[in-house]
Amino acid sequence: MMELLILLTKSMIDKVKSDIVSGCTKLLFVAPESFTKQENIDFFKTIKISFYAIDEAHCISEWGHDFRPEYRRIRPVIDEIYRAPIIALTATATDKVRADIKKSLCIMNAKEYISSFNRPNLYYEVRQKTKDVDRNIIKFIKSHPGKSGIIYCLSRKHVEELAEILRANSIKAEAYHAGLDSALRSKTQDDFLMERIDVIVARIAFGMGIDKSNVRYVLHYNMPQSIEYYYQEAGRAGRDGEEAECVLFFSKQDIMINKQLLNHKAYGATESSELRRRENQKLNQMIHYCETDQCLRQFILNYFGEDAPCTCEKCSN
Hints:
By secondary structure, this protein is of the alpha/beta class. The protein has twelve helices and ten strands. It has a six-stranded parallel sheet with strand order 5-10-9-6-8-7, sandwiched between helices. Strands 1-2 form a two-stranded parallel sheet.
């Protein structure tokens, strides 16, 4: 049995803890924010933990694309609770990020197992975003009748507006973002998984933990803030190994929007201007991807430190 220790009521948390103590629960999912709470640390000290698996480990590193300070406390908390073997897992880590993960977790001698970043079944394309972008997206979806797809937008407002436009054009689409009621989000996920709807229009959170292998296309209405974000989101297509398309609609306005978002991002007291500089560097790499005339697959693979053929014959360049 496994349990999820996040966003639970007091009585639900007590039940989870009881199941752990009794041995009924063998696997516990816990967010770093919960893992590092003193009341939970005190509880974890009373049980024997045999193994720590840290998912989305790139969040540990300031060089990563989704740095979260709470991840930096994981190793000190482990030392306080009970030392046991550690595995760190991520799908989007450069050489520098992997080194930083090992340093932060004090596992400098850990073995690294690295699979290729290449997804040969994915077709990558960058299209210029014009005033007709909505019409272009409708045409694209209707050329893939009955196929499952995800469209990513930067704002909640745009997510809802685009979903409404698609429905008005007889496309089975729904919006998904954190501002929606949790029951509605759950229903939308279920409808997508059961193929009662074809298209999800979402912000970046959608797709994490969603086990749907036959997504045939991922469209980006806006440019993401980093190659890592793009690789992660586009990579939700074609997980069944069959052909799938990843199309990014790009305009100069996306550059301005993303720069404004980064400049207005609130940084914690312990985070430095260096972190802001790194995020702007990542944004610049994403801009280069959108503007390059080189093979897009080669660009992505080189970014993650992997050698790539000169051309792949499966991208828009």
